[in-house]
Amino acid sequence: xxxxxxxxxxxxxxxxxxxxxxxxxxxxxxxxxxxxxxxxxxxxxxxxxxxxxxxxxxxxxxxxxxxxxxxxxxxxxxxxxxxxxxxxxxxxxxxxxxxxxxxxxxxxxxxxxxxxxxxxxxxxxxxxxxxxxxxxxxxxxxxxxxxxxxxxxxxxxxxxxxxxxxxxxxxxxxxxxxxxxxxxxxxxxxxxxxxxxxxxxxxxxxxxxxxxxxxxxxxxxxxxxxxxxxxxxxxxxxxxxxxxxxxxxxxxxxxxxxxxxxxxxxxxxxxxxxxxxxxxxxxxxxxxxxxxxxxxxxxxxxxxxxxxxxxxxxxxxxxxxxxxxxxxxxxxxxxxxxxxxxxxxxxxxxxxxxxxxxxxxxxxxxxxxxxxxxxxxxxxxxxxxxxxxxxxxxxxxxxxxxxxxxxxxxxxxxxxxxxxx
Length: 421
Prior knowledge:
This protein is an alpha/beta fold and 421 residues long. It has two domains: 3-37 and 283-415, Methioning gamme-lyase, C-terminal domain (Aspartate Aminotransferase, domain 1); 55-271, Type I PLP-dependent aspartate aminotransferase-like (Major domain) (Aspartate Aminotransferase, domain 2). The chain is built from eleven helices and twelve strands. The radius of gyration is 21 Å and the shape is globular.
């Protein structure tokens, strides 16, 4: 059955054996999937989504009924007052950038309480010099590191009592770090602390990779605004690009005017035929996120059985769709990533190499045999070429495809670990 992929029967047996240990975790994922599917379906019915919503607008994009209803659906499923969902966002990082510049003014202070944000924001914030950064506009930045994979509550309280902070940024997913991702319970606890000190502080959450993993989103526990990408969870592997910003109505309006222009805001922005794909994407998103989680759980169990350090463990509570495998060896990281590429649908013949990817300080090795370029809700694996050489694996449109991709990656890892950087 697996001969066409060149998979050794011993590897098939290993993965099937590990899969049996994961069935209880799979059952929990299915329950969450059903709950989130109900949220989506209820919103579709409430907003009377119809075929007419698939119609496109061009030019200025005035009076786009489908676009407005899409944003109403996202508002509902994210438990937010309002949402901005646009193909004009080219990535989650772009949406974060828009949000920063919409909410902050010269002299304001931005504080990250989850350590340094993702690498692609270094030049946005001004951690790395750039004449277009927040820093270049006189916006100040500081950060508080996590403590034992949780917020440093005492330090945050002390800091907020001494400084006038305008926006607090929280990144839930780990990015390219070794820390654990942040649970909704931890986010809720720290938001209560912040609001007890100063209710005017805007709490902004980078929710990428986390949507539909649990029963609640950060906006349901007090976050003022959240951001995510449509080529991650909520796009369901169907939306070809775009991102969302959701939360308080006044803040979403500010973001809309920064994305387009003051005075026009959300009233403009043609959809160019993308409405159907966005609606189909969020409709499929609970199931695709569930498939991604099952793939991550199985990967964790299999690589743990092979003696590698993994985070999370297969039976840990999940916060996002990302699975870490710590290889402590650049060649093993590269070969595993190459195996994921070979087990993918698109460009399976490509040999992955580490390269200087825009926005990153280190060389990055990345497998993404996806229908949409850079889509990390489809099966993908990447990591920086720096110690301890961690693979960050995520996504899979279906669980069987994820399982097959894992088989190929394990086969490549075990038989080609002498590959070069």
